[in-house]
Amino acid sequence: MSPEPLSPAALIFGRRVRSVRIELGLSQENVADLAQMHVTNYGKIERGVANPSLVTILRIASVLGVDVGALTTDLTGEHLPEVYSVLPASDYLRSRHGRTRRPL
Predict the structure, then answer these.
(1) Around Cβ 63, how many Cβ atoms within 10 Å?
(2) How far apart are CA 51 and CA 40, in angstroms?
(3) How far is CA 70 from CA 6, 48, 75, 87, 91, in A?
(4) Burial of residue 28, with CB atoms counted within 10 A of its CB: 0-12 exposed, 13-18 middle, 19 or more buried
(5) CATH numbers and ranges of domains, the chain
(6) What percentage of the chain carries pLDDT values higher than 70?
(7) Residue 102 CA to its chain's centroid (Å)
(8) Spatial distance between the Cα atoms of 61 and 65, rounded to a whole number of angstroms
(9) pLDDT digits (tens, 9 = 90+) for 35-58
(10) How far apart are CA 102 and CA 44, in angstroms?
């Protein structure tokens, strides 16, 4: 049984990486070698069961010849794992402003 994806974001990112790799006609081994990483780790990224660092994401995007944005576009806080409860700064600031505001 394979591990579950870490998050919707990891799954989407991995699928995008896989799609570009297949479009280019490259194997996982090819991309892993070119990105100077172990093929097992690369495979985990494609399956969404790894959380690659920014440097690793940049290496993969560079090998695939795409901008990082092409692999991450439209990923938002909604794609985080459920264990993360993220409050956008704008909501925090609005809440803080509302508490400190004094009636005239």
Answers:
(1) 22
(2) 13
(3) 20, 17, 11, 26, 28
(4) middle
(5) 8-100 (1.10.260.40)
(6) 93
(7) 42
(8) 6
(9) 999 999 999 999 999 999 999 999
(10) 53
